[in-house]
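Section 5: illustrative case.
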């Protein structure tokens, strides 16, 4: 069983920064691509960023490109999301997830961490 536990959320003013962390249990963390998603009430969960198993390849939603950076430390079994120049529209619950090797779907999810950006 894989467990993902997000942390680092909170309340920040517009223009500020936060760094989310997501440590994962299990010894095969480095074999999997990982992603960050976010969701606001009444909306579907949306993709934010993803990173390959090696960390070489990263992908971003257009809405966060140039402001957010996804990274990982396989020695610590942890994926990060550095969020800079935050905007009120970035307010959401942020989730990390593991991408399954075979299906390409995200098969394990954390419980989420709230990020609130005030104007």
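Designed sequence:
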């Amino acid at each position: 069983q894989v467990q993902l536990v997000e942390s680092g959320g909170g309340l920040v003013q517009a223009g500020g920064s936060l760094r989310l962390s997501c440590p994962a249990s299990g010894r095969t963390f480095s074999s999997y691509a990982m992603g960050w998603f976010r969701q606001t009430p009444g909306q579907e969960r949306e993709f934010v960023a993803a990173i390959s198993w090696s960390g070489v390849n990263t992908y971003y939603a257009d809405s966060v490109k140039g402001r957010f950076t996804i990274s990982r430390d396989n020695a610590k079994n942890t994926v990060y999301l550095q969020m800079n120049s935050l905007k009120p529209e970035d307010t959401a619950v942020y989730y990390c997830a593991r991408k399954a090797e075979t299906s390409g779907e995200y098969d394990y999810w954390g419980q989420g961490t709230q990020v609130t950006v005030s104007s």
